[in-house]
Amino acid sequence: MAGPVREGNLEAPTRHPLDWLNPEFYDEAALDTEMERVFDICHGCRRCVSLCQAFPTLFDLVDNSESMEVDGVAKTDYAKVVEQCYLCDLCYMTKCPYVPPHEWNLDFPHLMLRAKAVAFRKGETKFRDRLLTSTDAMGAILARPGIAPAVNAVNGMGFVRKALQSLLGVHAEAWLPSFAGKTLRRRLGGLPAEAQGEPAGRTKGKVALFATCFMDHNEPGPGEDLVAVYRHNGIGVILAPQEKCCGMPKLELGDLEAVRRAKDYNIPILARLVDQGYDLTALVPSCVLMFKQELPLMFPNDADVTKVRGAFFDPFEYLMLRHREGKLKTDFKHALGKVSYQPACHQRVQNIGPKTKELLALIPGSDVDMIERCSGHDGTYAVKAEFHESAMKIVRPVVSRIERAQPDHYGSDCAMAGHHIACALKRGAPEHPMTLIRKAYGV
Fold first, then answer.
1. Residues 97, 47 contacting (CB under 8 angstroms)
2. What is the helix (H) or strand (E) element at residue 208, kind and residue range?
3. Are 18 and 110 in contact (CB under 8 A)?
4. Residue 3 carries which DSSP code?
5. Contact at 8 Å (CB) between 288 and 314?
6. Alpha-carbon distance 43 to 270, whole Å?
């Protein structure tokens, strides 16, 4: 006999594999039925109302319906909720009491991903969204010595930005990334093909860096800082010999076949590095999460995906694991003063704890204020004309904390989130935590 239904869930969240290869995954009637079930639970709970715009959109639809219940919301309006979700996973990991193993089995982000995949398969995805998520193609064309400065200059022209908003739907006041004339791969071209390291605990002491689209094409500085910090701590670093985008932008678009293609390119390369004794890391939390969580959930029976998952570390997690074994140098030469730090959502849901804050707190004369609120950027959400104002609303609590603190430094593990915060703050420039660690070491 089944036990009583529990109001909450006291057990750790678990995640079911994403059943995206099953034809029923794309059945619209079944999708609508599941969305109505989940939306009804969310309507009765409303704990997630402050996280993002998806939940206020849902609750407004319910409250403005004739019945004031989910059955009064038109199925065609469900898409209004879906388009507001950028798969940060915070509702699943930090708020929802009904996630598995609770019997109600609620996984809001994966339900939104399923709806995005159905819309993509139907051809309803905008050209702009396909373009913005084609990071490899844009980087290959624009991150070149003779082209990047011109592109960056043009992107700074107000009339060009207004034209982009009219023609493409990219908000004229949103922060857009610049392109590097000299990419991270070119800057780190002198790295050795092989590295040695001293094992400590779970770490092998030698790391292969997955450069990521953004750090390679747009902001290579923190990548150079990582190499300097790791070398200072006796950790050997090499670059993964080749890579494509991790697939997270296409995942958030619902283009799951593109995610498969990226996986088929990246995983064999990374698995060979693991076989050669390397740990793996990347400086963009979304990329780390892709290899730690999303690909394993999409391809649960792929042995190489599982192998790569086990070897992938957040860069600050890696350093703090070394610290636990007495292998992290604490010979910091420079205090940082006040630091306002926003942990990236895709780092928080890795369930590794606040490793970046813990590392920054080791620096004498440094006071770290960790702001656990979403920045609202999500790579593309904040730059879209129809969502930019919502993104600016989501980031407002972060900006308010920074304005009150008046810190010497501020930033986020996600460089894009840091720039979005700066766009709203209109004060100074963000600094990646790895850049701050390098400054403190004086290397």
1. yes
2. strand 206-209
3. yes
4. P
5. yes
6. 43
104 in helix, strand or coil?
A: coil
Asked if the peptide bond before residue 101 counts as cis, ω within 30 degrees of 0, the response is yes
* Amino acid of residue 306: T
- pTM > 0.85: yes
Q: Output the tens digit of pLDDT for each of the chain's 443 residues.
A: 445 555 556 677 889 999 999 999 999 999 999 999 999 999 999 988 888 899 999 999 999 998 999 999 999 999 999 999 999 998 998 889 999 999 999 999 999 999 999 999 999 999 999 999 999 999 999 999 989 999 999 988 999 999 999 999 999 999 999 999 999 999 998 898 899 999 999 999 999 999 999 999 999 999 999 999 999 999 999 999 999 999 999 999 999 999 999 999 999 999 999 999 999 999 999 999 999 999 999 999 999 999 999 999 999 999 999 999 999 999 999 999 999 999 999 999 999 999 999 999 999 999 999 999 999 998 899 999 999 999 999 999 999 999 999 999 999 999 999 999 999 999 889 999 999 999 999 99
CA-nearest of 267, 258, 396, 414 to 349 is 414
Type of residue at 182: K
Q: Tell me if 378 sits within 8 A of 369, measured CB to CB.
A: no
In this structure, are residues 280 and 308 in contact, taking their beta carbons and an 8 Å threshold?
yes
Instruction: Tell me the two tokens of residue 116.
Output: 């995005």
Longest Cα–Cα distance of the chain, Å, equals: 71
Q: For the chain, give percent helix, strand, coil, nearest 5.
A: 50, 5, 40
From CA 268, how far away is CA 245, in angstroms rounded?
A: 14
Cross-strand pairs, 237: 207
CB-CB contact of 224 with 184 (8 Å): yes
Strand extents, DSSP E, 301-406 = 312-313, 337-342, 366-370
